[in-house]
Input
Amino acid sequence: MACSTGLQAQQELMLHQQSQLWHASATNPAFFPADKKFFIGLPSFGLDAAHSGDVTYNDLLRKDGDRTILDLGKAIDKLEPQNEVFYDQRFELLSIGARLPGDIYLQAGFATRLNATVDYPKSLAELFWYGNAPYIGQTLNAGFSANTFDWHELSFGLAHRFGKVLTFGGRAKFLSGISMLVTDENHNAVSVYTDPDIYQLTLNSDYGFHSSRTISAIDTSGLGFDLVRNQLKNGFSSNNGWAFDLGAQLKVGQKLTLDVSVLDLGGSISWKKNTNYFRSQGTFEYNGVEIPGSDIINGTTDSLDFTAALDSLNDVLQFEKSAAEFTTKLPTRIYLGATFQLTERWAVGAVLHHQKSERRSATSVGVNAQWAPVKWISLGAMYSVNDQSAANLGFSLILKPGPVQLFVLSDNALNALTPYGSSAVNFRFGGAVVF
Output
């Protein structure tokens, strides 16, 4: 539930349509701003996050006098039987590029990225908040699946323009894993049943997950879960991998430009150091116990009794830890785009984006218009459709005073302005110096 408080694929449709921006090369290695020779990309931050359905951050809180307190009841009412949280973040710290003689373009960059997906049943949220008392005689599914990992990314790219119409580009990316937690799809079951006659609670567990630098130990013998986390380091680790980007841009006549790119081809990270597998398996029965749910948060539960209950539950929930290597795969992203220059100041375009991973696929498409009232200002608007919504209105503002490029983009501008009242958020901002 902590994930759903702020949180469909990182599509960046609006960024892809701004090929004259240096940072647009992140979506196609064949993109290079025209008539410029040297580029320094300043820090840039991008976020694409969503919760399925219509759950927002504001649904998790309510006012109680002069206090704001956590109350999941309103959010739970909006949940579907099965729910998904997605979070994709990209932080580009620095990038550089150069145009060499012979229409050869070089580029390099360093970024940190995070990709996370969590699927959970409504019954898990109900059990957590209301406890098991309202569900006497029912079996509640409390298992959830998660796939989350973050990594450093060091990239090197090369592009070449053939004549004045066709550009090919490629980029190799060295990946260094920071942390990872992935649940086991073959062992993903946790259920709770309370007998209606003697209130005997039966808990069944067959649950496993892989972790590296996220959780090193689990102890359920105390009050709740004690997740012992490893300290994260900023430097490169021994958990490494590679990914590759390919792209092309074609000018058809004087006004039409077509492009295609495939990103993170073959992308994977092999987790070998500080990597473990945790497994919980068992059945436990005990009498007359109610899971206190929201009382835990509100502080109204008898902590001594609850601690004793969890001491017993530890016999069932105790995770066995074993060293085990693991490999995570990056989602592959595909872009198809077209831009038509209507006049010197007006351009229109369209873009299609598809992302595919082991656990989910998502497709989005958008049409946009761009207007440059003066040489150093550009405004853009986009209408797009994705798996989350059929009505997304994007916006872009680009300022280019002298050698400086500054930009703010969003595929869903209204949600970006009111993130706490939206179930999906998308935006990107940053800057560059170009010569």
